[in-house]
Amino acid sequence: MTVSQGREPLHGRVPELDAIGKLLDRARDGRGGALAIVADAGLGRTALLEEAVRRAGPDVRTITASGVARESGVPYAGLHRLLRPLAAEIRRLPDEHREALAAVRGGREHAEPLALYAALCELLALASRDGPLLCRADDVQWLDEVSLDALAFAARRVQDLPVAVLLAARDDRPGLAGIPRLRLGPLDEDASLRVLRDAIGDAVGGPLADAIVDLADGRPRAIRDLAAALTPGQLSGAAAPPRALPAGSPLRALHRGRYLRLPAGARRLVLLVVADEWVGAGTLDRAAGAAGIGASDVEAARESGLLRYETDAVTVRDRLVRSSLWADATRAERTAAHALLAEVLVHDWQYTGRIWHRAAVSGGPDDVAAAELAHAAVAAQGSGRYADSWRMWQRASALTADRTLAADRLLSAAADAWASGRPRRARAMLRRLAAFRCEGAREARADRLRGEIAAAAGDPAAAVPLLRDAAERFAADDEPLALETLLWAAEAADAAGDARAHAAIAERAATLPMPDEPWRDARTRLMLDHLAGTAALHAGRYPEAARRFTSAMRLGSSVTDPAALAWAARSALALGDAGLAPALAAAAVASARRAGIVPLESYALAVAARCDVLLGRPPAPVAAGHDGLRLAQATRLHGHAAEQLATLALAASFDGDAGTAGRHLDRLAESAGRRGLVRAAAFGTWAPACLDLAADRPSDAVARLRLPGGAGVAHPAARLASAPHLVEALARGGDRTRAADAFDDFRRWSEATGTPVHRALAHRCRALLSDTPADAADHFTEALRLHETAGAVFEQGRTELLYGHRLRRARRPRAAREHLRTALRIFERYDARPWTDQARAELRAAGETVTPLPVPAPAEPASVHGAPVRPSRPVPGQANGFGDLTPQQAHIARLVAEGATNREIAARLLLSPRTIDHHLRNVFTRLGIRSRVELARMIR
User: Could you give the 3-state DSSP secondary structure of residue 237?
Assistant: First the structure.
């Protein structure tokens, strides 16, 4: 979301602006408060304060102060600036308060602290009598101590005044204790790109935009500084992107100033960490001892704010600090840092770092050292330590004289950085690779890597052509690699909802020659079968799709690599195999973790979560979904994160948890549409429809599951999976004709797969569409048997509920109660409150007394002379409010309160509109009301 803020729009600060908006609203209502905005330089504290003033509008009076470093030692300087607009109000204060503020106005005597603080509170109260007041202070870390203490004292005491106080600081000041914090973090990637476009327009894009966003590390001020300093060569792509802030940047000057204020020994320690990014605590101690750096200098380095101290290591605080300090360091300073590190990296496991720093001292290529680093990188790769190997490859490339070999090693570094879950690092090295003018297989490897990163990071449309082009280059020399690349291209096309591209990729894969090596045969056939099965499913060729998926699923037992296992799991998921799909997905996750390949682990977790949710598992928190979401967000794999959000929203919606589902859907909506993630958005569309069914709103569910023109959900897999819910919604709404049409595709698919999961849902749909009670009973009975076979307990509960409803409408209440009791027990076991409510309502309508669920006690009514005032008539919304109504009348009353017409209620309850009208007249008579409006008001 973008907020216009003067000449510089404010991006990516929706939660923070919401918090400020609520504070201002409370101030307008006479219940003020305060917020302390804490953020480092460049993150937008001042912009947020200015937006707060704009949002406050002309009806809110604003007074402002800003801390100035040169005035931080001058008592009352901050208050003097803040209170100057309130001179008239100061003159109206009582004498004792006016005298306490005399020092602020230039008097000679200093006031007692409590007298000054009390006078300031009284002044703010007086200034806000005619309307709300906003008091804002920026850079309070530079306010004088007296002013900061007084402001904080007042900020903690404005809860009963129409006063909002906003204080902005770079760090947590002790004087701000007791004031709620609003911490600004770095902007995300999308918001950073929008800031860049505002700064320079659409002229910058692709690799250059990625480089600037990566370097700026989410700081809008850094993005603007970098954009302003771009050269024509950088804009055209002829010159390399910037690797540090421009020399005139205030942020770079800030970091440099902090560094130069340190003692010489502390500066040397800071630069030591900058040279290696991550230094162990033991290594730092040895360096301090070897260089004769005393304890006071070590402590000064710790307190500088340039480093981040972890449990057993020290790192540079962020990329901007590192790039700025390294750019400003002289050649002699850099050499000294490398030499000291080469001396103190003494352990065997540190030998690669020792080699690198020793070679860096010379400042030129060193093929011997590069070969040693490359050998170590291969060993690290073999043990799955990609977090180590990528850095070794990168350093080996920097020391390699031969440009072809250097390019190969840099490409290996990018691939291993990607495998370790560092897409930004990988992209940065791929940008540097452009300078080597790669061709042939090397260019194909680079494009495949770019495509894989783009797909997982949330840009599948851009990934498809990159991966297809790379596969064509591989096809001449390495058919299996070409096929695997086409599989990832098809996965990207599927995520983007591009069925045509997916079909073309499947056709191209079918023309690749099969390899002769027996050990590759199972994996190759699995990939071909999964790809062909998915294409056939999209095209509606269900028998072919089922056959190819079945082959891929069975071949899953013959492979061990995570990608192939995940594709086998997806084939089993499409078939509805509730046993093999979760097992194959779990094996894929375990294989990826053993191999140490983070993107594959994230992908496998997305597949595992969807298997758990769609194959009849209980609607409980999905471990694979939550684990996968955390991993995807930590590694900026936005495409995987969107899939997990859709899955988790579905899991919550199946049991009617609207709050949890809504939170996931809100986060999904932020990225799915903007990134073109059609598959995730389609599964996300299904979730609200499930909530509608749980809340007994079938017409709303139909509207969500049917697009204009009669089409279903926008993705073929999601449309097919959600078809039973659409059939149910249409049937419950009385539209049997459209329900039968919606069932046709799923009927053919269930017949092709023959799995209990799909057959059970198909029988349930047939029961809902059946015109004869006997036929419906047969289908319901078979559906329940198949649910039990598949272990789909929750779906069994839903079928029991539908069957009980059908029996009750057929005037067989005794038989209905048996199924409704089973449904109620299942829903209560899983705490599915909306479904529990439906089951209880049906049981009451079937003539059974059901113990009401506990409800929160209502607030004590007002009283007159100690006697409680009781309502004149029972309120149906309360636990005992339907005591005068029959179960059927109570059910109709609830539907009327929800806004349903008589015809809609009749269709839902399988009664005539005339019968509904008769029941409704009796409801009005028994409750002593005359209209639907009164009924709705009573129930709500």
Answer: coil
438-462, pLDDT tens digit by residue?
Answer: 778 889 999 999 999 999 998 999 9
SS3 readout for 248-274 = CCHHHHHHHHHHHCCCHHHHHHHHHHH
User: At 156, phi and psi to the nearest 5?
Assistant: -80, 0
Query: Mean of the per-residue pLDDT values for the chain?
Result: 86
Phi, psi of 437 (to 5 degrees): 50, 65
What number of other Cβ atoms are within 10 A of residue 234's Cβ? 18
Q: How many CB atoms lie within 10 A of CB 910?
A: 13
pLDDT score, position 713:
60
SS3 assignment, position 166? strand
Is it the case that residue 878 has pLDDT exceeding 50?
A: no
pLDDT at res. 865:
35
401 three-state secondary structure: coil
Closest by CA to 287, choosing from 349, 345, 353, is 345
Helices within 181-311 (DSSP H only): 189-200, 206-216, 220-228, 232-236, 250-260, 264-276, 281-291, 295-303
φ, ψ of residue 431 to 5 degrees: the values are: -65, -40
The string of pLDDT tens digits covering residues 663-678 is 999 888 877 877 889 9
Per-residue HEC secondary structure of 717-735 comes to: HHHHHCHHHHHHHHHHCCC
SS3 content of the chain, % helix, strand, coil (to 5): 70, 5, 25
Crossing angle for the helix pair 113-127 and 145-155, to the nearest 10 degrees: 50
Over residues 89-102, the pLDDT tens digits come to 988 999 888 888 88
Phi and psi, residue 278, nearest 5°: -140, 120
876, pLDDT greater than 70: no
Q: What is the DSSP string of 332-399?
A: HHHHHHHHHHHHH--SGGGHHHHHHHHHHHH-S--HHHHHHHHHHHHHHHHTT-HHHHHHHHHHHHHH
Q: What is the pLDDT of residue 933?
A: 64
Question: Could you tell me how far CA 159 lies from the centroid of its own chain?
Answer: 34
Global pTM reads 0.79
Residues 140, 455: Cα–Cα separation, whole Å: 44
CA distances from 351 to 228, 358, 382, 457, 683 (A): 42, 10, 18, 34, 50
Q: Per-residue DSSP letters for 515-571?
A: P--HHHHHHHHHHHHHHHHHHHHHHT-HHHHHHHHHHHHHHGGG--SHHHHHHHHHH
Tokens of 935: 């009924």
Question: Cα 686 from chain centroid?
Answer: 19
